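Re: export button greyed out
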Amino acid sequence: MKMPRSLTKLSFVVLALALAVSIPAQEGHPLKGSWIGVWEGNTVLGNDILMILGWDGKAVTGTINPGTDNIKVENATLDPAGWKVHLEGDAKDKAGKSTRYVIDGAIQQLEMANRSITGTWKAGAAKGKFEVHRQ
Amino acid sequence: MTNTSNRILTAGVLGLALLVGGTTAWAHHEIAAKFDVSKSTTLTGVVTDVDWRNPHVHVFMNVTTNRQALNWAVELESPSLLEMDGWSRDSLRPGDKVTVKGPRARDNSRQVWGGNDFRFVNTGLPVFPEKPKLPRNSSVSRPAPLWPDGHPALGALPGTSDGFWSDPDKTGLVEDGVTARMSEFGLLANLADAAKVAPMQPWALGLYQNRQNRQLRDDPMYVNCKPPGGPRMYQSRLGVQLIEDRERKRVFVLMGSGNHNYRIIYLDGRKQVGLQGGDDDNPLYFGRSVGNWEGKTLVVDTKDFNEDFWFTNGGLPHTDQLHLIERFTRTDFDTLRYEVTVDDPGAYTRKWSASWTLKWDGGGTLPSHFCQNNRQ
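Workaround output, generated via the alternate export path:
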């Protein structure tokens, strides 16, 4: 029995939905955890980043790691009104020159364990889209 | 391919879609998450079937309107909770003519929440008579049973009738002295009361409001069968049983809620370095508890909780800095006073306390409620 194309498509959609089901869980501070994603268009450090954030009860701490050199997170804030996120950190290029990176975004799907932060990054005149997902 | 085959395939695919999309919705839930409590519907009809199973019992009934009979589903609590209230699978049978009043499903499907207002049409009598409440503040107070060393027994003494603690007079964690009405599941009647419930940091208040706004549908105790760690276990109608292993100087707390979990409180003077050797880097749902007697009160110090659960009905946030001081006092034979001080500088601006009482259900058996049976 051959399945019609429309049903095949529907099956794939359903399968994709099954695989994409978000994990409903939100416990502890919303920024705490490991995040993986991209800062698009970063020609100096590359697109891919891994971010580890913590919460000590007073401040968001952590590192942004575009490769082997961790960038210490500074001046991090989380505003519950809209769950807006602000992160800063200094990164060095290959010549050793330090550049301040500024990330502004918002948490999406707060209630999910695999929530995301989407927004923008800036470093001097360079800027681009920022998107990381909690692991 | 024939039309019939097409229909079978489509039904199969859509069935899978419903299964995927409905995973959370089928779990046990706060009533308001599924039903609009502001819209009440009254149905009168004939019972066609009773589906007595977790997570919720459903009674199906044919309701005739304008000469057209439609089948409705009346959703009730889980079997274990209904049985606690004196209901059974035989309380209603197909053919019974009944009337029910309750809130309708938010998605406008033919479902209502049955609650307790379920009556036989012929007699007007309730199908499920309300079980008498355990006496509270009885004028005839019996003294708490004592062990030979003078400590009050937290459970039943050997050779006496068994029992457990249930019927908490508060089912939501609220700082002492604060009034904030909420449902049995901790859903606030007025969201504006959120900031009063406890001295939360801004992020914790925002998260608490988010959980409340979502009618607690993300509660990991129901969605993922996570244990009811912290004070939550003492705010369940399903109760707790305290078993004192005096020879080994420890107290087991068996839970009727959650997944029939248990917690151990050590009274042998050990440090809070792990319930079992080697788990120091593995914080737990119940933390690490050590206790000692201060007069007639068992004082328990617990820390090293993980963050993977809600420690209260209603979803007050906590962090892994949570430190609890709990005080258990059997003030008389039938009353257990529970007091808890919450110290979590990760989520709250200061220490705060709450207290309530539970009643002794003498001769009763702790309900065997398994969350995993609530997942289908």
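The longest strand of chain B covers residues 35-51. The button fix ships in the next patch.
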